[in-house]
Amino acid sequence: MAKPAVVEEAQIHAIPLKDIQACVLAAIETKDDTGVGDAVDVMLSQAAYHNASDVHLEPWSDYLSLRYRLDGILQDVALAPRAYQAKIIARIKVLSELVVYRKDVPQDGRIDAEKTSCGRPMRVSTVPTIKGESTVIRLLGDLQELLTLDALGFQPLVVEALRENITRSQGTLLLTGPSSSGKTTTIYGLLREMMAMQKNTTNIVTIEDPVEYSMDKISQIQVNPHVDFTFANALRSILRQDPEVIMVGEIRDLETAKMAVQAGLTGHYVISTIHSGTAAGVFTRLLDMGIEPFLVASSVTGVLAQRLVRLNCPDCTEPYAPDRFILERFGRPDEAQRYFRGRGCERCQNIGYRSRAAIGELLVVNQELSELVLQRPTTARLQTAAVAHGMETIEEDGFKKARKGITTVEELLRVLPTPLG
Question: Per the omega criterion (within 30 degrees of 0), is the bond before 210 cis?
Fold first, then answer.
């Protein structure tokens, strides 16, 4: 039996979010043995077409819910009858080479690019719940989608300072921000710039979990905790590989932190990420982890804190007056300023936002700040000193974009729940 025309169309062209449910149902309700497979392909291919970062398949009482994370926000897409839940999850497990009959333990797998019509590699995670297995699929990146530093959204002065920082022969550059704040994209932008500046003569080694973008002329290593191949163990090994540049995907423990900081002192340039609320807070975090102040002060050359904000849809942006409560939260109740937001249109799926860009603050460590770190300062004291030396806060960067109509103050409140200052 031929495949439903609507499914074939969906596999080739992007369709509106509101029509995806009809395509999924048309596929799974056909008597063709390939129906469930077609439905899964529609789910995954449409996620790629709509630039979703994740696909969520969640078992509810009567349905299997399909949701896409679009520009950082989960959007309801479709509800599949509960009767097809097991077959849909089983199909995804087959694609990702997981054990189909094991429904009582979490499993992690990968769908290779050639197994889907959209040609995107994907990382799969399944977790058992009381209503069945919950599945989250992360769409991994296409190298062609990687942005340059100029296109990420940072202020020109921040981009210029980052470019100056990566020309150093040694030191540690740290990025901080919550999950899905664009840190990996920024790091790959930095690596591409370094390769261009060094004419590919630099030995660059990365340690990642997972490797999201495959790049030529860079040695990329994926950690495997199941065989005790952790960030710390991988870092210890590659220090014997004569690298000039080391990228560590994440500093998660004291051992990794200490080795990364020490590597930045011994002739290597290290780029890594660490979780903290602000750029200044990274220093407090490292000191609290047990890193000696003199190591932090001598090795860390800069810290970039970043978030991703949704951008107003350019086709339906209009002036509006934000809620006074929001402006008060940011300490700006009397600010006389015109703001803008997207009202929602067909081009943005009536959401009002399309795409995202970075906002950030870059703390560049100079002699004065280095000496201050030796005194184990509080985050607030270091933040004040950094601003006094010219650092523009992430909040001010966000408000600059809001005043220009690039984003909204509501979006700033979402990504900066606790106003900084």
Answer: yes
Question: How far does the chain reach from its first CA to its final CA, in angstroms?
Answer: 64
Rounded CA-CA distance 408/421 in Å is 19
For the chain, the residue count is 421
Tell me the three state secondary structure of residue 215: coil
User: How far from 369 is each of 261, 283, 287, 295, 309, CA to CA, in Å?
Assistant: 17, 11, 15, 14, 29
Instruction: Out of 14-18, 65-69, 343-347, 361-365, pick the least confident.
Output: 14-18
Sign (positive or negative) of CA dihedral 314, 318, 321, 323 = negative
pLDDT tens, position by position, 48-78: 999 899 999 999 999 999 999 999 899 999 9
SS (H, E, C) 217-230: CCEEEECEHHHCEC
Burial category of 338 from C-beta neighbours within 10 Å (exposed 0-12, middle 13-18, buried 19 and up): exposed
CA atoms within 13 A on the CB side of 182: 28
- Exposure on the CB side of residue 357, measured as CA atoms within 13 A: 22
309 exposed, middle or buried (CB, 10 Å; 0-12, 13-18, 19+)? Answer: buried
How far is Cα 52 from Cα 293, in angstroms, rounded to an integer? 41
CB-count burial class (<10 Å; 0-12, 13-18, 19+) for 357: middle
**What is the spatial distance between Cα 272 and Cα 250, in angstroms, rounded to a whole number?**
6
* Contacts of 402-407 spanning 24+ positions with Cβ under 8 A: 402/339, 403/337, 403/338, 403/339, 405/312, 405/317, 405/339, 405/340, 406/311, 406/312, 406/357, 407/309, 407/310, 407/311, 407/312, 407/357
CA distance 283 to 294: 12
pLDDT computed for residue 5 by the predictor: 38
Task: Tell me the per-residue pLDDT of 138-182, one tens digit each, with 9 for 90 and over.
Answer: 998 765 667 789 999 999 999 999 999 999 999 999 999 998 899
Helix (H) or strand (E) holding 299: helix 293-299
CB of 320 within 8 A of CB of 338? no
